[in-house]
Amino acid sequence: MSDARLPAAEAVETHVRAFFEGHRVEAVDYDLGPDRQEAVPDLRILVVEPGPRGDSWAYVTAGCWAPVQKDGHGLEFVMTAHVRDQRFIDLMAMIVYYHCGGHPLGLQHSMPIGEPWVPGSTCDHLLISLPYLHGPDLEHCPVPGGHARILWTLPVTTAEIEYRRRHGHEALEQLLDDAGIIPTDPFRASVA
After folding, report:
1. Residue 101: which of 151, 39, 153, 42 has the closest Cα?
2. Helix/strand/coil percent split, the chain, to 5
3. Considering the entire predicted model, what is its pTM?
4. Which residues fall within 8 angstroms of residue 92, CB to CB, at 6 or more apart?
5. Among 50, 112, 141, 171, whose CB has the most other CB atoms within 10 angstroms?
6. Number of other CB atoms surrounding residue 22 within 10 Å
């Protein structure tokens, strides 16, 4: 890692490990490939096993903040899933490349995955939301020279994205909450 990016990525990893104390955390270096590596040269995906904070797996990016931060503020992303699978590591890398490669994401944005979240799932988009499963203690991450905000990438359906376009982000979040969805269930029914 370069000198400029190393402290930020290390700060994110330290923050995630402290938040998930009691969980095993594996740092996976991710090479986006020769044509994409330039956008996020030092990407790591932190894979957090189930433990005291929850019974699901968490996948957290580290290395996304530095390439596109503005005035010391930038983003990292978290996804929760029902199992450990390379698919989710690859998906987190895809999110980071999308974000750092010219399509900046932010709170209340969405991103098409281009295929089901997992085979057989109707979830084919990601909704960028507050990390409700983990709260503000994970969301707010100080880094040298600034602050990284860790936002949740929640898998949703095309119908749910259409509902959000018609009724707004808050209305969709309320609909998801009222339905009591299990956000780590790839085979959940669409609520819209």
Report:
1. 39
2. 30, 30, 40
3. 0.93
4. 30, 45, 59, 60, 61, 77, 79, 153
5. 141
6. 8
